[in-house]
# Entry
Amino acid sequence: MTFRRAFTLVELLVAIGVIAILASLVIAVGGGVLARGERTQVESVFQAIDVAVTALEESRSQPLVFNRRRSTTDTSQQDNARFSDIDELTNTGAYIMPRLLGILAGNPYAWSALSGISPDLLKREQKTWPDGVQTSWNLRDPWGEQIVVMPPGRPATRAEIRKAREELKAGRPTSGADPLGFGIDLADATVRTADEGMYMKAACVGRRWLFLSKGPDRNMGQAFGQGTADANGIQPWDDNVLSYEPGRLNP
# Structure
C-alpha cells in the first residue's frame, strides 16, 4: 500500500501567503502601468489641443485673446481690451474649455488636430455660461474630471508696462498697474488673469495656454500655493498633469 503525503497546515498557510504576496505585487504593478497609461493619454490630449490652438492662430494670423471682463455692466470689473475671443465671466478656468472648444470646432485646421482624441474624452456636454451663451463640446481626462484651462493674459500696453516698472522701482507690486489688480507679468509683457494671480499661484510662460488635469486624486490644489498634505505627506497637486511647467509669479 502506498501512502501519499498530505500538505501540513503550516505548508498550506505558507503557500497561501506566497500567493497573496504575488497577487498584491501583480495588482501594484498593474495599477502602476495603468496610471502611466492614463498619464500618457492626458499628455497626448495636451499635445493635440496645443497644436489645435497654434493652427487656429496661424490660420487667422491672430492670437487667441482672453479678456478678463468679470462683469457685463460694472466698468470697474472690466479689462481695457478692445477685442476678445473668450471673456472671463466666472471665477474658475474649468468653464473656459467649452468656449475654447467651440472656437476650435469652427476652424477646420484646428478641429482636425483634435480628431485623434478619444470620444470618451472629447464629448458633447451642454454648458450654459453666465451670459447665456451655450456650448456643446467639453474635454475630460481619463479620471472623469474636466480638463482645466489657464489662459495667458492679454498683451500689456506700453503704458501698463511703464507703470508696472515704476511700481517695482518704488518697491510696490505690479498689481497697481493692472486695471483689475492682478498684476503685470513683465517677463511675458502680459496682464495676469485671475487664475494666474489668485488660484493657481503660477504664471503662463511664453503666452502659451496652459492645460491641467487634476490627476487620479481629482484634486487640483495650487501649483505654487499652500495646500494640505494627506497622511502620506503628498500634496494635492503632486499628481497633477500639466501641458508644460508654469512659471512662478514675479512681483
Summary: The chain has five helices and nine strands. The two ends are 91 Å apart (CA to CA). The helical segments are 9-60, 96-105, 108-112, 158-169, 194-199.
